[in-house]
Amino acid sequence: MIQESLLLYEVVKFAAAPLTHAMCRPHITGAAHVPRSGPGILAANHLSVLDSFLLPALLPRHVTFTAKNEYFDGNPVSGFFMRLGRSLPIDRESARAAQTMLDEAAALLERGELFGIHPEGTRSPDGRLYRGKIGVAWLTLKTGAPVLPVALSGTEKVLPLGSKVPRPARIGIAIGEPMRFEGDHRSARDRRRVTDEIMAAIQRLSGQEYVPVYASSVKGADGGAPARTSSAEAGG
After folding, report:
1. CA angle, residues 183, 185, 189, in degrees to nearest 5
2. Separation of alpha carbons 40 and 34, rounded Å
3. Which of 31, 199, 220, 226 has the fewest CB atoms within 10 Å of its CB?
């Protein structure tokens, strides 16, 4: 069943590639840093709901992303593609669910696959780069998989906030060199240190202004309900 699903995913991806390239005119740098085989964690900034669709669509290897539950249940089209791509759902309000997702991601990496995550945990409310959550550090320290920092740009123009219909816009994808870390995944200090180093690498690639607070807290201060941070701080 899994093999059939992956085959269908590759067929859909191949069929959609011309449209994706025509609409987004992607400029990709650093693609050679993505390993041809073996595990890797793609840690990307987060500007648009489309980020976890576009990055896997434009890379040759299959990438399993994490995504909030609403992407699976809120829209039948996004739900179809999330399930087709074997994305891992995350309930941001449940510490247990967040840890379950991280355990599944670790197993995926130990099988030699690629995993994608947005360490900020939610879309940037204003285009700036926000403090990363420590799930990405837990994963790399637990599994030894390298982290590839990724800077996305222009994706928020393809699907502006409040819009339901994508529009043509040029996007950029910059992939940095693999990063490897030493430390104990059980150590809060090591997890924070590694996460901050990953966010610094993303900032160097993206050129975004860095804000040392969680994006969810800024969204809450602007009048929206802040996302509760689970103890696992997985990211999404």
Report:
1. 70
2. 8
3. 31
Domain count, the chain: 1
For residue 144, tell me if it sits in a domain: yes
pTM: 0.85
Q: Tell me how far apart the alpha carbons of residues 49 and 125 are, in angstroms, rounded to a whole number.
A: 12
Instruction: Tell whether 229 is covered by a domain.
Output: no
Q: What are phi and psi of 30, to 5 degrees?
A: 80, 10
Kindly give the confidence (pLDDT) of every residue in the chain, 236 residues in length, as a single tens digit, with 9 standing for 90 and above: 455 556 656 666 777 778 888 899 999 999 999 999 999 999 999 999 889 888 988 998 989 988 665 665 655 555 555 555 566 766 666 677 788 899 999 999 999 999 999 999 999 999 999 999 999 999 999 999 999 999 999 999 998 888 888 899 999 999 999 999 999 999 999 999 999 999 999 999 999 999 999 998 887 666 544 444 443 466 76
CATH number at residue 128: 3.40.1130.10
> Would you say residue 21 lies in a domain?
yes
Q: 154: which 2 tokens?
A: 């222009």
Domain that holds residue 12: 2-221
Helix or strand or coil: residue 143?
A: helix
Residues β-bridged to residue 210: 129
Closest CA to 51 of 173, 135, 168, 149: 173
Structure tokens that stand for 161 in this block: 């906030």
* 90 in a structural domain: yes
